[in-house]
Write a structure and sequence with these properties.
By secondary structure, the chain is mainly alpha-helical. It is built from seven helices and no strands.
Length: 186
């Protein structure tokens, strides 16, 4: 095996491990989001609007991120997106109104897209054509199982420690997983 192949395999292992941690954080956050919105005075209608803002702002941002990640590389967007996500999650602990939630949702869509667009592009970069389906399948299985586990235990953790503590834990996980991504050689 040549040096380039060794680096590619090492990068893929780092990438899978870091993003498995990231999916742990997403699993802790995702399913209890509606309850969080309800707690600050929102309704199911507000939930739909808040989620729509994330998708809309992210969709618009993906056009820009995709183009620039081809020019400057995937890693800068992964790092910026990961660390910024940690800040976004902490900001949820500071809000108590729907308008503040909507502003954070727009920022969340932009930041999440920085990460997600580059994540998928880098995953394609780290796989070889002959085994791309296998490697991508393995990647999505690992991060999916970790996220499912987090969803299973997240409710008990939120019940016992409260939303704020969960948000702080998620933010710490984002910082750790993003720091691990720095080790990728692009």
């Amino acid at each position: 095996m040549n040096l380039k192949e060794n680096i590619r395999k090492q990068n893929l292992r780092i990438f899978i491990f870091a993003n498995a941690l990231m999916s742990l954080a997403f699993g802790l956050f995702g399913p209890f989001y509606l309850i969080f919105i309800n707690k600050i005075g929102g309704s199911i209608e507000n939930f739909g609007f808040a989620v729509g803002l994330v998708v809309l702002s992210g969709s618009i941002t993906s056009l820009i991120v995709g183009r620039y990640s081809d020019m400057v590389g995937r890693k800068p967007f992964l790092i910026l997106g990961g660390y910024s996500s940690a800040l976004i999650v902490v900001s949820y602990t500071l809000i108590n109104s729907l308008w503040a939630l909507y502003v954070i949702q727009i920022l969340n869509g932009v930041i999440a897209t920085l990460f997600q667009t580059s994540e998928h592009a880098l995953l394609a970069d780290l796989t070889i054509k002959e085994k791309r389906g296998h490697d991508m399948g393995r990647y999505f299985a690992i991060v999916g199982i970790v996220e499912a586990f987090a969803i299973f235990v997240g409710g008990a953790l939120a019940q016992r420690f409260g939303f704020e503590m969960i948000f702080y834990v998620i933010s710490i996980i984002f910082v750790i997983s993003t720091t691990i991504l720095i080790k990728i050689k692009e």
